[in-house]
Design goal:
The structure holds 2 protein chains of 2 kinds.
Chain A: H1 3-16, H2 19-52, E1 61-65, H3 71-82, E2 86-99, E3 104-114, E4 124-126, H4 130-134, H5 138-141, E5 148-151, H6 153-159, E6 166-169, E7 172-182, E8 196-200, H7 204-207, E9 217-223, H8 227-236, H9 238-243, E10 247-249, H10 251-304, H11 309-339, H12 342-345, H13 360-386, H14 405-408, H15 412-432, H16 436-467, H17 474-481, H18 490-521, E11 529-534, H19 539-548, E12 553-567, E13 570-571, H20 572-583, H21 604-608, E14 611-615, E15 623-628, E16 642-647, H22 648-654, E17 661-666, E18 669-681, E19 692-694, E20 704-710, H23 715-728, E21 733-736, H24 737-776, H25 778-790, H26 795-832, H27 841-868, H28 871-879
Parallel strand pairs in A: 3-8, 5-7, 14-19, 16-18
Antiparallel strand pairs in A: 1-9, 1-10, 2-3, 2-6, 2-9, 4-7, 5-8, 6-7, 11-20, 11-21, 12-13, 12-14, 12-17, 12-20, 15-18, 16-19, 17-18
Helix pairs in contact in A: 1-11, 2-10, 2-11, 2-13, 2-24, 10-11, 10-13, 10-15, 10-18, 10-24, 11-13, 13-15, 15-16, 16-18, 16-26, 17-26, 18-24, 18-26, 18-27, 24-27, 25-27, 25-28, 26-27
Chain B: E1 2-13, E2 16-28, E3 33-37, H1 44-51, E4 59-64, E5 67-68, H2 74-84, E6 85-88, H3 100-115, H4 121-134, H5 150-162, E7 168-172, H6 180-197, E8 200-204, H7 208-212, E9 216-221, E10 224-228
Parallel strand pairs in B: 3-8, 3-9, 6-7, 7-8
Antiparallel strand pairs in B: 1-2, 1-4, 4-5, 9-10
Classes of the chains: A alpha+beta, B alpha/beta.
Chain lengths: 880, 229
């Protein structure tokens, strides 16, 4: 068999045009557009990140640590410096910054950089030269001159400050030299990034903010002559850096981190877009079934004339694939255009400025996926034409032609085609998903959803036949009967509309619950201002300041910084090495003292992290005791160390349970505690939550800072308190929770908008399939309608028949889609995010009405021809 | 050219067996026209289907141009039809999406495809146009079946049946859907073309005028031969 004959015949058959197939091709185009748009966008981000290269860090490598570098790291930096490498050091910390000119006060990231950074890339400022001026020796310039500062654009906007204005950081005042419009190491402003203010390293001490307990990040930038040398240095000192608690990174690692983050997010969006493609696939399968049914007699004739089964199948398969190719090409072109829209949609969440770009690999993949999915979906229904019995050509026109149905389900080719379809869908989902497991879960969920909707469709047809009352009005009986009559499209319409409704409904359900949660977390009675980094000797004065302003002090909480020294008497360093062995596959032994009550080995990250902990005598509203007793006065576990309560998650990661002992290290002192209770903590609420809470009397001797919460609904009063605070207690910082809420709202809103945008593709695909399904049965419907008109039926009766049919279809598809969306919303919100779930009844009811109305509208438009034109004209048209 | 011996065709449905043909023998020589006549349900079309290899007999054998059909699988039967058999149908059976010219070219293209070479498309088109001219439809070559009358469609069907120069022609009620005058024109054409091509022809018909033009008439009744003239 050659494909030439099949191709020629396919071209000829396509001239007649299959409207259904063309419409379903439109659905494929939408799916391809969604995937190409996201794929191109992902590639553009990767390009942008790669283009920035070393400029991303402004150095070949960078170190950072929450502690001053120990001697080992300092020696390394000194030796590199001696060998001619560029070494630049930085100190950064969050601090309140006041702009006296505007009166604005904000929590910003203060950065002091000494040395030649950036080694790669440029700092661009407005006015130019501000960065160089920052590094001039202010002492040499004159004692009466204020030191300079450079703001990033967001900091300048928040402080309403510009070049020449003054800003106060701690106890020091700076003149703004300029605003940095481009800065290596600092991508365009993101929602959760603290805006930065850069000050000279020599003036850091004058702020009086670098003191014990401050949240300082120490950093170093290296210029060692290229990425190869940087890698060698990092590889050679990996152990030492890890022991010193120093994080080391290179531009390559930063690029990978950024691109994988964006890749992960866009792949989730891709799954939403993929639904459009799979809907298109279902539509193609449905259209192929119609094509096979209408071409079965032609196929039988070709077989009778001697064409091979393969040739006959190839004709219709090629016709379908050619259409899918054209649709995919149009979809890819649309996707390239849509890509330009995505950076606007995701503004604030992107780590780099993304340029529009056409990526041939992405376009080729889009074409391949479009054509491949059409092939996978069309093959099974088109096998009918392959099996068209040649004897049917001898039968009379009025007798039907059926593929060799009895043997259909024993045909291994059909099982092969079904297997290919399942494999193709699974592969597509895995390819597009952030992880194979997510992809498979998505494919499984989608298959289950389709089966449920198909069951609803079948159930509707069955119920229509079973329960249709004989005494019902004629139009209603006719309309409802159309749901189960031969060649009905009930199944296709219910699945397509139901899936589209489900996607929109699920998004609405999740979004409304998340937004509800935000409102609850920052609602009346909840604190909206957090004052932190309060030294013990400042606590009473700060509380006094708050109360004097007429504001409530909603609690003062001490916070001490600790690390784990040992678990059940086994040194943490030893355990961290052991965790490494476990990761390499060795099982813990039964007698291993490190394996606590749970028998689990501790995770390395949980052993090495810093614990900011508090002590108190009662649980808070966000905590629930799930094991043990809260400060058990009758605790009899050997010698009496202090008691500690752990959050369940961290207890699991540490592999400890009730009765296990933990020795902590704080400011050079060691404290041994016993775990006497476990708590479930609602981390989703912005309250002061802790992994470890100590019994009062254990931590009091450890250096601690305090946090004070207050609620000041009036934004001006809130700003005034922050100004007073900065002036009187420069080292104390404040977080305005309303700003965090606004930022979270912005992120939730942006993500929801992006998901909604991608959902739009699926909804449009669903509507196209609805139109295609109506188109597929239009001749039959027209013939019936015209016959009824000829027999004297009124136009209103014909319209009522269509109304009844499509109201049933749309109503039930909408009901199934919204009902399943409510269940999926609950599963995602309550089970997935652990948030309370509230079904958005109003939104879902509106969605149900919209779905029903869309179905009725499309049905009415399709049926309009039968009532507008004379019956004979329509019948002649049908015969042609 | 055609040799059928002891043909039996029975169908089983719902546990009951219905025998449509029982023990039919038939021989057709090259250039001979054999008409099969009989009442509805006598097994005429079933016999034609078995002779064409479109169906398998329950018992008995069929040889077409020396090839035993029982030895051939479905693809082998399709090849044989493509190379040696032409068909004329009662309902014309033109492909609705193809023009008259393309419909006539189809058997040539199928045979070329089977032979696995490109074939001379111009030659195929020349042959199709020549045949359309022969049946008086040269001017209607680019019309679709829906734009042709019943008689014209059947004339396209005749042209298609002879396109591949078959050695055997099977015709199922070729005038069954045509009025008397048109039917007579089609009969003249069919016999003329058959004579020119020296084809062995089996035709199933109710049409006594057509049967009268056959070399031999075979009567079927209740699935058995009821006589021959």
């Amino acid at each position: 068999m050659s494909l030439r004959f099949a191709a020629r015949m396919a071209r000829r058959d396509a001239r007649a045009g299959s409207g259904t197939l063309v419409l379903c091709g439109g659905a494929i185009a939408l799916g391809v557009a969604a995937l190409v748009a996201l794929g191109s966008f992902r590639a553009s981000v990767a390009d942008a990140v790669a283009r920035q290269g070393r400029d991303m860090l402004g150095a070949d490598a960078a170190f950072s640590s929450r502690h001053a570098f120990p001697d080992s790291v300092r020696r390394l930096l000194d030796s590199l410096s001696r060998t001619g490498a560029g070494v630049s050091r930085s100190t950064g910390f969050p601090s309140m910054v006041l702009a006296p000119g505007s009166g604005a006060v904000r929590l910003l990231e203060v950065r002091a950089i000494e040395g030649g950074w950036p080694f790669y890339g440029e700092v661009e400022t407005s006015p130019p030269g501000a960065w160089a001026a920052l590094h001039r020796d202010t002492a040499a310039a004159g004692a009466d001159l204020l030191p300079l500062a450079v703001l990033d654009p967001e900091a300048a906007a928040q402080l309403s400050a510009s070049a020449g204005d003054t800003v106060t950081v701690g106890r020091a005042r700076f003149v703004v030299a300029g605003v940095a419009t481009a800065m290596p190491d600092h991508p365009p402003t993101r929602v959760f990034d603290r805006p930065r203010v850069y000050i000279p390293a020599g003036d850091l001490a004058s702020t009086d903010l670098v003191r014990r307990g401050s949240l300082i990040t120490y950093g170093a930038y290296l210029d060692v002559g290229g990425s190869g040398a940087a890698r060698t240095i990092l590889d050679g000192h990996r152990g030492m850096l890890r022991r010193a608690g120093v994080r080391a990174t290179t531009p390559a690692r930063e690029q990978e981190r950024l691109t994988s983050g964006v890749g992960y997010g866009t792949r989730f969006l891709g799954l939403v877009g993929l639904a459009a493609l799979l809907l298109g696939g279902l539509g193609v399968a449905s259209a192929a079934r119609v094509l096979a049914a209408t071409r079965l007699r032609s196929a039988a004739l070709l077989r009778c004339l001697g064409a091979s089964r393969g040739s006959v199948l190839s004709i219709f398969l090629l016709e379908t694939l050619a259409l899918a190719l054209v649709a995919s090409a149009l979809g890819a072109a649309a996707g390239i255009g849509v890509q330009a829209w995505l950076p606007h949609l995701l503004s604030g969440l992107l780590p780099v400025s993304v340029r529009f770009g056409v990526h041939p690999g992405v376009v080729a993949a889009g074409l391949g996926v479009g054509v491949g999915s059409a092939f996978a979906f069309a093959l099974l229904p088109l096998l009918d034409v392959r099996d068209a019995p040649p004897l049917a050509a001898l039968r009379r026109a009025e007798s039907g032609v059926d593929a060799e149905g009895r043997r259909r389900w024993r045909d291994p080719r059909r099982w092969g085609a079904a297997g290919l379809l399942a494999a193709a869908v699974a592969a597509l989902c895995v390819w597009q998903a952030p992880s194979p497991l997510t992809g498979l879960a998505y494919a499984g969920g989608l298959a289950l959803l389709s089966l449920l909707l198909a069951a609803v469709g079948r159930g509707l047809a069955w119920a229509a036949r079973r329960f249709l009352p004989h005494g019902a009005p004629y139009a209603l009986r006719q309309g409802v009967s159309n749901l189960f009559r031969p060649r009905n499209q009930t199944l296709a319409v219910v699945v397509a509309l139901g899936l589209g409704t489900f996607l929109i409904g699920t998004l609405a359900a999740v979004e409304s619950s998340v937004v509800d949660r935000l409102r609850l977390a920052t609602g009346p009675g909840q604190p909206d201002l957090v004052l932190f980094d309060i030294q013990p000797d400042q606590r009473d004065s700060v509380l006094d300041l708050v109360r004097r302003g007429g504001h409530p002090a909603l609690g003062a909480t001490p916070i001490a910084v600790l690390r784990i020294a040992s678990l059940n008497g086994v040194d943490a360093a030893h355990l961290r090495a052991g965790e490494g062995r476990r990761a390499s596959g060795a099982a813990p032994s039964d007698s291993d003292p490190a394996a606590g009550q749970t028998g689990r080995r501790p995770e390395r990250w949980a052993l090495g992290r810093e614990y900011r902990s508090t002590w108190r005598d009662s649980l808070t509203a966000t905590e629930t005791l799930v094991a043990g007793r809260w400060w058990d006065s009758a605790w009899a576990g050997g010698p009496r160390p202090g008691q500690v309560s752990l959050a369940t998650g961290i207890a699991g990661d540490l592999g400890v349970g009730i009765g296990d002992t933990i020795t902590w290290e704080a400011a050079g002192r060691r404290l041994t505690t016993v775990v006497t209770s476990l708590r479930d903590v609602d981390w989703a609420r912005p309250a002061l939550n802790f992994f470890a809470v100590f019994q009062p009397g254990v931590l009091e001797t450890v250096p601690a800072t305090w946090v004070v919460l207050t609620r000041i609904p009036d934004p001006r009063a809130r700003a005034a308190l922050q100004r007073d605070l900065v002036e009187r207690f420069p080292s104390v910082s404040a977080v305005d929770l309303s700003r965090i809420e606004a930022a979270v709202r912005q992120v939730v809103g942006t993500v929801a908008e992006a998901v909604r945008f991608m959902t739009l593709f699926s909804v449009m695909a669903g509507l196209l399939i609805l139109v295609a399904a109506i188109w597929a049965s239009r001749r039959q419907r027209l013939r019936e309608s015209v016959l009824l008109r000829t027999l004297g039926a009124r136009a209103a009766t014909i319209r009522s028949i269509h109304l009844a049919e499509y109201a049933c279809l749309g109503g039930l598809a909408g009901l199934a889609g919204t009902g399943l969306a409510a269940v999926a919303g609950w599963a995602l919100v309550a089970r997935g995010f652990g948030l309370p779930y509230r079904t958005p009844v109003g939104s879902l009811a509106l969605l149900w009405l919209a779905t029903s109305a869309a179905a009725v509208l499309v049905g009415a438009l399709a049926g309009g021809k039968a009532v507008r034109r004379p019956p004979l004209e329509v019948l002649r048209g049908l015969e042609e | 050219m055609i040799l059928a011996e002891g043909l039996v065709r029975a169908y089983t449905a719902g546990g009951r067996t219905l025998t449509v043909l029982s023990g039919v023998d038939l021989t057709v020589a090259a250039g001979e026209i054999v008409a099969i006549v009989g009442p509805s349900g006598s097994g005429k079309t079933t016999l034609l289907g078995l002779l064409a290899g479109l169906d398998r007999p329950t018992r008995g054998t069929v040889r077409l141009d020396g090839e035993l059909l029982a030895d051939l699988d479905q693809e082998g039967l399709a090849r044989l039809r493509a190379e040696k058999v032409g068909f004329v149908f009662q309902t014309f059976q033109l492909l609705p999406t193809l023009t008259a010219l393309e419909n006539v070219m189809v058997p040539i293209e199928i045979a070329t495809d089977r032979a696995g070479h490109r074939g001379d498309r111009n030659a195929a088109e020349r042959r199709a146009r020549e045949l359309l001219g022969r049946v008086g439809l040269a001017e209607r070559a680019d019309h679709y079946p829906s734009q042709l009358s019943g008689g014209e469609q059947q004339r396209v069907g005749l042209a298609r049946a002879f396109a591949n120069r078959p050695t055997i022609l099977l015709a199922d009620e070729p005038t069954g859907n045509l009025d008397a005058d048109t039917g007579a024109e089609v009969i003249d054409l069919l016999v003329e073309l058959n004579r020119e091509a020296d084809t062995a022809m089996v035709l199933v018909t109710h049409d006594t005028e057509l049967a009268a033009r056959a070399s031999r008439v075979v009567r079927l009744r209740d699935g058995q031969l009821a006589g021959a003239t």
